[in-house]
Write a structure and sequence with these properties.
six-stranded antiparallel beta barrel, 6 helices, alpha+beta, single chain, four-stranded antiparallel beta sheet, elongated
C-alpha cells in the first residue's frame, strides 16, 4: 500500500483516499484465505474417518437332523458356489431307496400280470395299447430311480476326487490314488449320461403311449376305466411318491456351499449329531460388499444416508472408489479393536456403513480412509 507524505489537509485527505482504494484488494485477499481454509477443512473432514471392508460370512447347515458322515473341505480352502462341502450319513436312506425301488419292481411285475389278464378279454389293439402304456410308465419310473441313485453316487465320487486333489496339492497322497479316483469319477459320469439318455427315451415313449391310450378311451365303444385295476394303479401312485420323498431326503444329505469363497471355521466333526439348521461350517466371501467406519464423539461428523463418499485404500497408488452411505448407527457403540488398536480406554463412535459398488475388487479386511463430498 503506497503512502504519500506531506503537510496540510490536502496531503492527509490524499492518504485517506489511497487507503480506501486499497479496500477491494484487501477483500479479495480475505476471500482467498477463507476459500483455502474451507478447502482444507473439507479435506480434513474426509481424512479423519477410517474404515475397513467387512467380510461376509455364510453358514452351511443341514436341512434335516442327522449324523455327520464326512467334511470334505478344510479351513482356508477355496470353494465354488454349490460345491459339496459335507455329507450326512445316508445309510438308512439308501436302504429306504432300495426298498422303494424293489417295491416298484414288484408292482411292475404285478402290473404286467394284471395287464395280461385284462388284455385277454379285449381285442388285440386295446390290449397292445394298454400294455404299452403301463410298461412305459413303470419303466420310466424305474429308470428315473436308477438315475437318481447314480447321481447320488456321482456326487460322492466327485467329493472324494476333490479331496484327493487337495491332498495331492499338498503331496499328502500319491498320484496313483488321484488317477484312480479321477477314473472312477469319469466312469460314473458316463454312466449317469447313459441313464439320462435312457430316461429321456422312456419319457418320450411314455408320453406317446399315454396319448394313444387317451385316444383309445375317447373312441366309440372304448371303456373309460384304466387298463389296470384301481387298487393297483393307486399302489403305483403311492410308491412313486415314496420314491420321490426318498430321493429328496437323500439329496439333502449333501451340504453345499451357498456361495463362492473360502472355508472359515469347521464347527462340527464327522460322527457328531447335528440338528436341523445347526451350522456345520462357515464360508467367507471372496469379495467384500460394504465398508464400515466409525465417527467418534470428538469428531462430530454429520453424515446422512445417501451422502456421497470417496473411499481411498491405505495403500498408495490405488484408485479411489466412489460410493454412498447406506446406513448410519442410531446410537454410539464401542469401537472395534482394529479401528483403535492403541487406545488405552474403550472408545465409542457412530457406525457408518457404505455399500461398495458392483464389480469392486475389495477384499475383506482392507483398510480405507473416507472423505465426504
Amino acid at each position: 500500500m503506497a503512502f504519500n507524505g506531506g503537510n496540510g489537509n490536502g496531503n492527509g485527505n490524499g492518504h485517506l483516499r489511497l487507503r480506501r482504494r486499497d479496500f477491494p484488494g484487501l477483500w479479495l485477499w480475505c476471500a482467498a484465505v477463507l476459500a483455502v481454509v474451507a478447502l482444507y477443512a473439507r479435506q480434513e473432514r474426509g481424512a479423519v474417518l477410517a474404515g475397513y471392508a467387512q467380510e461376509t460370512v455364510a453358514q452351511v447347515a443341514a436341512e434335516a437332523p442327522g449324523r455327520l458322515r464326512d467334511v470334505v473341505v478344510a479351513p482356508d480352502q477355496k470353494v465354488a458356489a454349490g460345491q459339496v462341502v459335507a455329507w450326512l450319513d445316508d445309510t438308512q436312506l439308501k436302504l429306504e431307496l432300495a426298498m422303494a425301488s424293489a417295491e416298484l419292481r414288484r408292482l411292475r411285475s404285478e402290473t404286467e400280470r394284471e395287464t395280461a389278464a385284462w388284455a385277454l378279454s379285449l381285442e388285440s389293439d386295446r390290449r397292445r395299447f394298454a400294455g404299452d402304456y403301463e410298461t412305459a410308465r413303470l419303466e420310466f419310473l424305474g429308470a428315473r430311480a436308477e438315475l437318481a441313485s447314480a447321481r447320488v453316487e456321482l456326487q460322492g465320487l466327485e467329493a472324494v476326487l476333490a479331496r484327493s486333489r487337495a491332498l495331492a496339492a499338498q503331496t499328502l497322497t500319491s498320484q496313483a490314488t488321484l488317477e484312480a479316483d479321477s477314473t472312477a469319477c469319469q466312469a460314473q459320469r458316463e454312466l449317469v449320461t447313459g441313464r439320462e439318455e435312457v430316461v429321456t427315451a422312456l419319457a418320450e415313449r411314455y408320453r406317446q403311449s399315454q396319448a394313444r391310450q387317451a385316444r383309445m378311451e375317447g373312441a366309440a365303444g372304448a371303456p373309460s376305466a384304466s387298463a389296470l385295476p384301481a387298487a393297483l394303479a393307486a399302489a403305483v401312485e403311492v410308491q412313486e411318491t415314496r420314491l420321490q420323498l426318498a430321493e429328496l431326503a437323500q439329496a439333502r444329505c449333501a451340504l453345499h456351499a451357498p456361495s463362492a469363497g473360502v472355508v472359515g471355521e469347521v464347527l462340527r466333526r464327522p460322527g457328531e449329531v447335528v440338528a436341523a439348521g445347526e451350522p456345520v461350517l462357515t464360508v467367507v466371501g471372496e469379495r467384500a460388499i460394504e465398508v464400515v467406519a466409525y465417527a467418534t464423539e470428538e469428531q462430530s461428523v454429520s453424515v446422512a444416508v445417501g451422502d456421497p463418499v470417496r473411499l481411498r485404500r491405505s495403500a498408495r497408488g490405488s484408485a479411489p472408489i466412489d460410493a454412498v452411505v447406506t446406513s448410519v448407527g442410531a446410537a454410539m457403540s464401542a469401537l472395534p479393536l482394529r479401528v483403535e488398536p492403541f487406545a488405552q480406554t474403550p472408545m465409542w463412535g457412530q457406525a457408518i456403513r457404505i455399500r461398495l459398488p458392483e464389480g469392486s475388487d475389495v477384499k475383506p479386511g482392507e483398510s480405507f480412509r473416507l472423505s465426504f463430498r
